[in-house]
Design brief:
The complex is a heterotrimer of chains A (360), B (259) and C (301). Chain B has 259 residues and is of the alpha/beta class. Chain B contains ten helices and ten strands. Chain B has a domain of 178 residues: 3-Layer(aba) Sandwich (Rossmann fold), CATH 3.40.50. The C terminus of chain C is likely disordered.
Amino acid sequence: MNSPRTSVQPSDLSAVLSERLFTQGSLPRYAPGVTLAAAIVVGGVLHLSGVASGLAAVAVVVLYAVAIYGWSLAVEGARKAKNRVVTTVVTAAFLLALLPLISVVITVVGNGVGRLDVEFFTYSMHGVVGEGGGVYHAIMGTLLITALATVISVPVGMLCAIYLVEYAKGKLGRAITFFVDVMTGIPSIVAGLFAYALFALIFGPGVRMGVMGAVALSVLMIPIVVRSTEEMLRLVPAELREAAYALAVPKWRTIVKVVLPTAGAGIATGVTLAIARVVGETAPLLVTVGITTGVNMNPFDDRMATLPVFAYRQFMSPGLPPEPAIDRAWTAALLLVAVVMLLNLVARLISRLFAPKARA
Amino acid sequence: MAKRIDVADLNIYYGETLAVQDVSMSIEPRSVTALIGPSGCGKSTFLRSLNRMHELIPKARVAGKVMVDGQDLYAPDVDPVAVRSQIGMVFQRPNPFPTMSIYDNVAAGIKLNAKRMRTSELDEIVERSLRQANLWDEVKDRLDKPGTGLSGGQQQRLCIARAIAVRPDVLLMDEPCSALDPISTQKIEDLITELKADYTIVIVTHNMQQAARVSDTTAFFNLRGIGQPGQLVEIGDTATIFSAPANKATEDYISGRFG
Amino acid sequence: MRTGDQIFAGLSTGSGVLILAILAGVAAFLVVEAWPAVVAPADEVPGGAGVTVYIWPLLFGTLLSAALALLIAAPLAVAIALFITHYAPRRLAHGLGYVVDLLAAVPSIVYGLWGIAVLAPATVDAGAWLYENLGWIPLFAGPPSSTGRTMLVAALVLAVMVLPIITAVVREAFLQTPRLYEEAALALGATHWEMIKMTVLPFGRSAIIGASMLGLGRALGETMAVAMVLSVSGGVSINLISRSNPSTIAATIALDFPESTGIAVNTLIAAGLVLFAVTFVVNMLARVVINRRRDFSGADR
């Protein structure tokens, strides 16, 4: 090497550097549009000549990717061509992910809307064979069990979050934070088995009770409540707390009167999302609450019906003739999807309407 | 290598907002041009329009002409990616890629353009670039270590090495010393003075002493008023601007009366 | 006043400790209820050959379906996260993220219904094609199922279900890529994709790994969709397109638990304990990886 600033130019370096022009060939602005249109035409022809629609769609994407790559490679070079292909792949992946969502919604609405009648909401399955019947008992069961799970989870979850944000120091705090995260990953069926094992030890094997389901759901709900509450509490500015302490307000009253109300909207959003997450759970209720045909309003005594388990049972063991039961299963599923979507929407609204810094 | 830049009637927008109005100036090759002015006067925005980085902000656009050795940067068939590979940029905060070693940081730009290059050749370019950036002696024994392990000043020189490794025509520097201590700042200033033998350098700075020390030409930007776009007030020989500015605002700014 | 503070502090600390207790309780109660099956004579356990022989094919089915689901979902999730954070127009990014989140909101029972009614029938032709053209690969040894209720479809449904979970974590990480580095890459003359390869992907790497493991954990434990979609016959097989598939632990529990009594219940709980242990380890590793990334990026700032 020579002195630091010599600008020797090895002859082969010039080959490495692109020629010093800003205008390297580039595809016209309309290139992607035209290519896509052509690919869609080919796909349409394929479809008309008997190729399945899914396969034709795949063909459109592949054709587009290959065509734009080839065209770009010829005009713009390998780097640009690769860039265009990646854009295609990434966009296609997103559209692909929308497919199941759209398909699920169409299927559930299409199959479920048939039994969306008054009888469905006002009758139970007591003594129903074949047509008719409803989910009144299952709605009541789902409401009761979910409410009970909420009553257990929200205080525990909120207090735990308060501990983590306001009190926790050192190892215990870190351990709890870590295991709350791990707990969000517990399979729901395992939560159900836990509730069963717990109650079986007390009441003997084979026990079924609404409250067992509530306990199982709580295991799933608590970590969600903790995480969302914790996040919200951490957003409360320290100045607010200090202002209260400066007025000699005790710590617990500061938390209850200042910190919690400030974070209120966020916590409500988190709780709503937690409810949405567990209201459709089937597996833990299947092993703890079971199913029944009549109305049972006492969660401390015997089996109860719930919407998800109802849908599952009606679909998997429909009896004869099967059609009415399968229709009921779809309508129950539709109801569940509607409830979950509604809860998600409510959560969004709460956070948007009541958030302290409500700027969309 | 070094090229001449001629800007004519340049207007720079963020959406509907005009941020910089009617800038016309010429930037000589193998010289250092300093852009000075109060905060928010559009000097950084102007700088970023010289290598088409400005348009990366959603809705941002530019009207007017920027000619680099006779080629218009904003001609319709110009490829911004090609522009940026020929007009290098150094940022306010040192930003070596944290996941890459020192060596890979310097080689990053070259690898983009030349996938299959002999290792010996690449080694040569990396060494030359690091030497040009006055960093070689400090890092030659730890080229495989992450660039983020260096001090702030070393990181910034690494970024300069990274920028000049691809042999750009122009080097843009956006307040390159504002995050550095005085000693590191001086090293960078020395480096700028050395590099101007090979490059056209445009530097934005808040520090007027720095402008006076390193630049040959100084351009003073100012806001026309509150809520008004920024504009070029005057440009001239650095010695003249600092001793006998033609404009009252320039004089006030330089003498520290505002900004 | 002092007592008020003490009571409140005690309550919140108690709640925190309760979380750890619940987690320990889950393990403890499952062990207690699983124990009778472990010590029972082999011929009393369902299948007549002991707990290990009973659980092993289920564990295999669980791992196979989850791994397959992850193989499908993880690359897609990374692509989707990229689309949302770096390709879609900024203003749309938030809404698009929400749409993907909605996928996670759909109850698993609904995915089960959808899997049987829509996805399974739609794959019958594809299964037959795979058998005819790629039948020499053991995965597609067939004979192809005429209902489509295959391991492949179960894995597809699982993939749809874990997709939003992986996407959410990866998206968050991609969004946090400092603009500083992205600009550095672009200023060197990188194309959009090269910029992503140089900055976004390396920066989000451990998040991708951690998120994939979270998704794996979810897929391992997912119950209803598999219970409904998969047509099972027991045994161990890697044949993805036939009607005889190994079941999964979670699905078997859901299918058999309601009608089981005595030692059969304990056996199912033992299987549940194995599932708990596996998902627990996977989730712990996932969190360790994700947290390490958080520390790294925090120190970097």
